[in-house]
Amino acid sequence: AIWTSGGPAVAWGDPEAGGDCEMHGKHVKSVQELVAAEYAIAAIMTNGQVVSWGDPCSGGYVWDARLRDVKELVATDDAFAALREDGTVVTFGDPSVDCSSLQLKGVVKLSASSAAFAAILSTGAVVTWGKADFGGNSSQVQDQLRNVKEIVGKIHNSAFTALGEDGQVLATWGSSRCCASKEVLKQLKNVKVKNID
Asked: Of 69, 97, 122, 173, which is most buried, counting CB atoms within 10 Å of its CB?
């Protein structure tokens, strides 16, 4: 799918995987941002509402009244997390990554891996949820997750990296094959994040 900022979205391909947004018609005319999961696509509209299409099990064709005033949207392979202007988070798609029981508040930024989400709180603390092997459990590094400024996670990846002031890598967690050792972490200073989607 593609769009021009503030303009309509156009999608093609397998309708079951997000290749058809026509059912939404006029609702996909003023797109601010598009985010893709493996089999669904979601759009933040210029009015802050979210519209999605594709496989319903992956977050396609969802209508949720809470998906308004959205300022950020991230995706795992099978779900989406939306950060609202009031600092709360709404998830949709795969129910195994639902965050409603966490009652998240004060969230300033989101990140996603293949099957987990991470949220930076206004205090600089981090909350994670989803599949543990993919970064959904950060309990082993929680003591290192203070004053976090950025979390790097990528769809089709199974780990997260937390950055602090001046690009210092504070911690990595998730799949052991994707995490840096403590020795490597000490060497990582002044890291800059570049979006290479």
From this structure: 173
